[in-house]
Protein: Glyoxalase
Organism: Pseudobutyrivibrio ruminis
Amino acid sequence: MKLRNVLIVVNDIEKSKKYYHDLFGLDMLLDNDGNMILTEGLVLQDKKIWQDFIGQDITYKHNSCELYFEEKDIEGFVEKLEKLYPETVYVNKLMTHSWGQRVVRFYDLDGNLIEVGTPM
């Protein structure tokens, strides 16, 4: 058995597709009308479809998981994030952990938690 994808729920799949392309270079591999697979195994699921499937409301900003990306040019990434998406809500601005890794944590357009850090 192997893990194939990670699915996140989004309000506007087209806006989210653009967001993940703009910031992380992810491209669409498959669009199944509300269920979109991007490169690197990220799946965007339309909120209404997911709610109908699980029969429950969606809770954003639950902070129990995050999408983690690594970027060598972390300062360049933060500049791009602030330029393209100035309304970004941060958990923490660029910081350095005690072990030397630099990271920034923020929410995507729908409140999904993202961490971008320098490679370990």
Notes: The helical segments are 13-24, 47-54, 74-84. Residues 61-120 form a domain with the 2,3-Dihydroxybiphenyl 1,2-Dioxygenase; domain 1 fold (CATH 3.10.180.10).
